[in-house]
Design a protein that fits this description.
heterodimer; A: alpha/beta; Aspartate Aminotransferase, domain 2; seven-stranded mixed β-sheet; three-stranded antiparallel β-sheet; 15 helices; about 30% helix; B: Aspartate Aminotransferase, domain 2; 14 helices; 13 strands; about 15% strand
Chain lengths: ~550, ~450
């Protein structure tokens, strides 16, 4: 065959070759290694240009020229406001030592972070079945709305007349949260779920003190609770006591009732619970706790399962936080920011934190802060954070809620529960499902490591799933199930996506059951193999040290 | 509904697989009395993207955006220019829609970023280490007080009058429940900070002294004598930085021997957003890391010996230690920490110093102009990009009157300290690289009118 042209080019057909080829860079085509900014950047480099003239035409600098104070385009600007005979007002505290902050030009920075991003799994890439975390699709309309200058570029201390729209968002979202939960009031400022728990517990404590019952010093928490529950109660000065679970994964109501008494301030119960089950006797529990003089805190982490179908207020709940980053789809962002408004019963509402919004008959909204709290809200337990809470999350959550409406939110709960049950029933023949016989699950399905052969554990299943292209489920939580695997698909997965996931999990489980040793060293195809967590904890390296310094320290 | 992929035939097929007749069969564990029979009444039904966008835009337009007015507010939240690439990068789905990096093999992007963030924060604050972020400056400040209690096993914290009043308010709330005793004071409208009275107040019961740098009125004081005095009584110095850009021009608190340094990181990479989400910075000396709250990312190796990163020292944290944890914090401010880190990487040391110099230059020039206004007196001796003016009359009505004219003049101390008559004439003014000389001129001439 003659060449098509003289360059020697011709269409190629692939040939099978070596499995493992070392590369010069350590990269593997699209899988790119990326060094630390401390290895590739320099303190002389900047990716930001500053105006050549200072914005105030040099006044105040003793008449010095703009270049003299280092605002020009020189690659090594003279950064010190001192020198060149210029007056500064830094009170003799001008920095005179290097900071050690490397800079990158814009193209280098964009590439650095883009490369890093590609080492992450994310909802945008695939199903993210982390139980109790509600990793659902994050609509981009929410992001767009949060970035409107009227929301994104507003200072928290602007006069209230200039921020009526921002207060309007808070107020409108508050109304939705109250209606969806059937509660009486809502505290909007808590910054995440755990902060919301603290808000609820502080409301309970304040309410008890107001009744002269501040001596109640015990909070009852089920063994299956999130770790934040006992940590929160302990922070507020309470002794934490476990409530046992029944064999079918619910609160042991008789044991709980037996423990109630004059020293019990309240209970913290997650409903639906962390085994993915609805606490059938929630109302009975609430009534018993109330009869004994205590209050009921509900961890609302799993509200997604019931939103629009069940109102916690109808179950006798006194306080419940709502993770806007779970049920209402504000992005998890690799670990926050969250937002944890707390809905409150009539009994607890007077004690909620500052500040909050108040809508008047003429539509004008005021912000009740320390100044007016004495007249309007004298029992408030105080302030939990500076400013007005997670406004950027409020705009996203409200956008999501308005998109769904009352009908769509109900469908959210139904589809999330349907998807979880579909997974439960599709896999209960392969994996041990400890509560499957007791009835349907809510929005998450739980499996255990029972039935895996000696030497195989939940972590091997999890890491095997990574090779299949999935983020693993929540593992070893809740503590009440041995080797727990908690799978929450959410409502934003299609049937086809679920079917593929079910196939993958079944395959991995069957490999484990067959004693496939390769699982114990999985993942094989991720950017990193299993990492040495023991080493990290034993010899903590928490910051980068420049090589010569690190050497000197040894 | 555009966010729900299941079709009606899908739902029917899945119910059949499950062995349920209707969706209601899956909710049998909910008592009938608590079951709603349909969508909650009196709430709107689902809406198109266009309709939602209209509604939200209408609300947004009812606010006066900082960028649409001469703008001078600070006091714990600052308006800085954020490069476009920061917002682009944090919206990459692999960052935006990832979870806390509990599965490190597929979260190296977030983890490496956190390791870089911790290092940037530690270097900026002048501490040995920093954690992977807290909710915001005010909650980080409270956590620092709790941390000092655990380290010193003492329960009295002395809070400077120059500490942001919201931070004081948060600390007071928390102290009610933990039994800490807080000594607090109001600031005075003078050039002098309260460093000397703080030094005098430290005793053998003191766990820590908490001081803001620069303080709420923008004043700056050398923290070294305070650190020495605290250490002489085996107490800790907690320094609070609400404007991290200042540390591009000023000595870091760590350099002056502060033991724990906390801060509000919003200034770098994160917009004003009406107060949140922001990003709490927290660093400390090496010897105290086991008492730190929050997450740490640490370096390690994988099974093939390649460098990698994991969350570490989690035996301090609630998910392992439950009621014995150092804090109940779980979710923190990951994405805002990313924004901070990207912006800081774009700046680099040269850029941060230039940014700080620009801010300070602008503030110095502004004080010269504003101090010429009859009825205006500059309170500060030293300052960075924020200073306090003492007006010839109460500042709060002046701020409101200027707002009516579309000028966001600053923060009146009457808003922050209602009822404190001695402070009522104070106006705190911040000047950043976003402030133009025309803005300053507008403020000056408007103040001239208002105070005439």
């Amino acid at each position: 065959m003659s060449n098509i042209n003289q360059s020697g080019w011709r269409p190629t057909a692939p040939e099978a070759g070596e499995e493992s080829v070392a590369t010069f860079t350590g990269n593997r085509a699209l899988m790119l290694e990326e060094a630390l900014i401390f290895e590739i950047g320099s303190t002389e480099t900047t990716g930001v240009d500053f105006p050549i003239a200072p914005p105030l035409q040099g006044r105040g600098w003793g008449g010095g020229s703009p270049q003299a104070i280092g605002l020009g385009h020189s690659p090594t600007p003279n950064p010190s406001p001192e020198g060149e005979g210029l007056e500064n007002r830094l009170g003799g505290l001008a920095r005179n030592t290097p900071i050690g902050l490397p800079g990158l030009s814009e193209p280098e920075a964009v590439r650095h972070y883009t490369r890093l991003s590609r080492q992450n799994y994310a909802i945008d890439l695939g199903l993210f079945p982390l139980g109790s975390c509600t990793m659902k699709h994050n609509p981009r309309l929410n992001e767009k709305m949060a970035r409107l200058p009227g929301f994104a570029d507003v200072h928290p201390l602007q006069p209230v007349d200039t921020v009526q729209g921002a207060l309007g968002v808070i107020n409108e979202l508050a109304v939705w949260l109250i209606e969806l939960t059937g509660m009486h009031g809502v505290a909007m400022t808590p910054k995440a779920g755990a902060h919301g728990e603290l808000c609820g517990i502080l409301c309970i404590k304040a309410a008890l003190e107001a009744k002269g019952e501040g001596h109640r010093n015990v909070i009852l928490v089920p063994e299956s609770a999130h770790g934040t529950n006992p940590a929160t109660a302990a922070f507020a000065g309470y002794a934490v006591e476990d409530i046992p679970a029944t064999a079918e994964g619910r609160v042991d109501v008789e044991a709980l009732k037996a423990r109630l008494g004059p020293d019990v301030a309240g209970v913290m119960i997650t409903n639906p619970n962390t085994c993915g089950l609805f606490e059938r006797e929630m109302k009975t529990i609430s009534d018993a706790v109330h009869a004994a003089g205590g209050f009921v805190y509900c961890d609302g982490a799993n509200f997604n399962a019931i939103v629009g179908r069940v109102r916690p207020g109808d179950l006798g709940i006194d306080a419940m936080h709502i993770n806007l980053h779970k049920t209402f789809s504000t992005p998890h962002g690799g670990g926050g920011p969250g937002s944890g408004p707390v809905v409150l019963s009539e009994a607890l509402s007077p004690f909620g934190p500052l500040p909050f919004t108040e809508r008047h008959a003429d539509g004008h909204i005021t912000l009740v802060e320390e100044e007016t709290v004495g007249d309007r809200h004298p029992h408030s337990f105080g302030r939990m954070c500076a400013f007005n809470g997670q406004m950027g999350m409020f705009t996203r959550a409200l956008t999501y809620i308005l998109s769904h409406g009352a009908d769509g939110l109900r469908q959210v709960a139904e589809d999330s529960v349907l998807n979880a049950n579909y997974i439960l029933r599709s896999l209960e023949d392969t994996l041990d499902a400890p509560f499957a016989s007791s009835g349907p699950c809510m929005h998450e399905a739980i499996f255990s490591d029972d039935g895996l052969p000696e030497g195989f554990s939940t972590i091997d299943i999890a890491k095997g799933l990574i090779d299949e292209g999935y983020h693993p489920m929540t593992m070893y939580f809740p503590l009440v199930v041995h080797g727990a695997m908690l799978v929450e698909p959410t409502e934003t997965e299609s049937k086809a996506a679920l079917d593929q996931f079910i196939g993958a999990l079944r395959s991995v489980a069957e490999r484990a059951k067959a004693g496939d040793e390769s699982l114990r060293s999985a993942p094989h195809f991720a950017p990193r193999r299993r990492l040495d967590e023991t080493l990290a904890a034993r010899k903590p390296v928490l910051v980068w040290k420049d090589p010569e310094l690190a050497q000197a320290a040894e | 509904m555009r966010y729900l992929p299941l079709t009606q035939p899908d739902r029917e097929a899945m119910l059949a697989t499950i062995g349920a007749k209707t969706i209601d069969d899956l909710f049998v564990d909910v008592p009938v009395i608590a079951q709603l029979d349909g969508p909650i009444r009196n709430l709107p039904m689902h809406a198109s993207e266009l309709a939602v966008e209209r509604h939200m835009t209408r609300l947004a337009k009812k606010n006066l955006a900082a960028g649409d007015a001469p703008f001078f507010l600070g006091c714990g939240a600052y308006r800085h220019h954020v490069p476009a690439s920061v917002d682009h990068l944090i919206q990459r789905g692999e960052f935006l829609t990832a979870y806390t990096p509990y599965q490190p093999e597929i979260a190296q992007g977030t983890l490496q970023m956190l390791f870089e963030f911790q290092t940037q924060v530690a270097r900026l604050l002048g501490t040995d280490v920093a954690n992977a972020s807290m909710y915001d400056g005010s909650t980080a400040c409270w956590e620092a007080i709790g941390m000092a209690r655990r380290i010193t096993k003492r329960g009295k914290a002395i809070l400077s009058g120059g500490l942001h009043p919201h931070y004081v308010s948060v600390a007071k709330t928390m102290a009610k429940y933990t039994g800490d005793h807080l000594e607090t004071a109001l600031p005075t409208l003078s050039a002098e900070t309260d460093i000397h009275s703080l030094i005098a107040a430290i005793d053998d019961d003191t766990s820590c002294v908490v001081v803001q740098y620069p303080d709420i009125l923008g004043r700056i004081a050398d923290l070294r004598p305070l650190a020495d005095a605290a250490h002489a009584k085996k107490a800790l110095l907690v320094a609070v930085v609400t404007e991290p850009v200042a540390l591009g021009a000023l000595k870091s608190p760590g350099e002056m021997d502060a033991d724990i340094v906390v801060g509000e990181g919003q200034s770098i990479g994160v917009g004003l957003q009406f107060g949140g989400p922001y990003v709490g910075l927290m660093g400390c000396k090496d010897k105290y890391i086991r008492q730190m709250p929050g997450r740490f990312c640490g370096e390690t190796v994988d099974a093939e010996g390649k460098r990698g990163f994991v969350l570490t020292l989690s035996t301090r944290e609630q998910h392992i230690r439950r009621e014995k944890a150092t804090s109940n914090i779980c979710t923190n401010s990951g994405l805002c920490a990313l924004a901070f880190s990207i912006h800081m990487t774009l700046l680099g040391e040269a850029g941060l110093r230039a940014l700080a110099a620009t801010n300070h230059a602008g503030a110095v020039a502004a004080t010269e102009r504003l101090a010429k206004v009859p009825g205006v007196e500059l309170v500060n001796d030293g300052f960075f990009n924020e200073f306090t003016l003492k007006l010839s009359q109460e500042a709060r009505p002046v701020v409101r009157a200027l707002a009516d004219k579309g000028i966001l003049a600053g923060v009146s101390l009457g808003r922050l300290y209602p009822g404190a008559d001695d402070l009522a004439n104070g106006l705190v003014v911040a000047v950043t690289e976003t402030t133009t000389s025309e803005d300053v001129e507008t403020l000056a001439s408007s103040l001239e009118e208002a105070l005439a």
